Amino acid sequence: MGWWWVMFGGAALGFECPHGRPWLVDETRPLLGSSRSPGRVSVDLDLPPSQRWVAVGEAYRNQSYLITEYFLEFLPENVLDLLIEMFTPVSSYGGFGDYGPEMEGYARGLNVSVGLVVIANLAYQLEHIGVSCDNWNTTGPTGQCFYKRGGSGGPCTSIVADDKNFNVYHARNLDWNLGDDLRGLIVDVDFIKNGTLFYTGTTVVSFVGILNGMRPGFYSYSFDARCQGGVLAVNLVEALSTGAETPAQHARRVFEAAPSTFAGFVGAMASGDLLDDAYYILGGVKDYEGTVLTRARNRAVDLWPLNETAWFRLETNYDHWDPVPAADDRRTPGNARMNNLTQANVNTTTLFHDILLQWPTFNSHTDVSCVMAAFDSTYECRVAA
Question: Membrane-spanning residues where (predicted)?
Answer without folding.
Answer: none
